[in-house]
User: What shape does this take?
Amino acid sequence: MSVVKIACIQTNSTPEPDENIASVSDLIRQASASGAQIIATPEVVGMLEPNRASALSKAEPEEAHRVLRAFCELACDLDIWLLIGSISVKVSTTKLSNRSFLINSNGKIVAKYSKIHMFDVEVGDGNQYMESKTYEPGTEAVVVDTPWGLMGLTICYDIRFPHLFRDLAKAGARIIFSPAAFTRVTGEAHWHILQRARAIENGCFIVSPAQVGMHADARQTYGHSLIVDPWGSVLADGGTTVGYITADIDLSLVQVSQNKVPSLLNDRYYTKAF
Assistant: This one.
């Protein structure tokens, strides 16, 4: 199956999981009705809760997670493949995991990925982001086989670590997902450049569903969900409103692009003289 219609959901998640299940499910149904076979949602799609104590109290373990259960059922009902960009999964009394799930059209989880790189930064927007205080970093890169070939999973801040994307592409990933809740400040400066760069460097599709707008505690996210082809062309851009975008992607373009610029094959290992 060379051509597939893919969709990115762009939403404005609140601190309340049930609210987010309802609003995101509606957007997923709309995207499915448009013909999308693979639908991806943003990072922290089930709960964007800036308060650490509240996040820990509201988060649920994976086996009892209401957001995960609802979206597994929805994927089965709609006969779609669904990427949960990430949800907050309780892994201990003091830590969560920022975890993605890829769900098949039978509603079964076929892959999961815990965010490796923690967003511990001060970007100058008046907020301090210390993800490692609440979240336990993942340790494993993930590539999963699907009816459309291999796909790689990443989350948000991972986009700034090109070696991860290189490893996924070298493992055969033709699509790499990069769901995000990018801040408005960093998004305006870097979002489009980073997504296009990862696509160009690796000759693969980058699919990046994003949070958008003003959230609790005056947190602002950038939006502009993107679908980028292996040559770096933006096929769809979600702008700054809640909704969804779609694109028909031809996966044969991955091999075409990698043949034109075979950088994956031309990589060389070297010793450091410093």
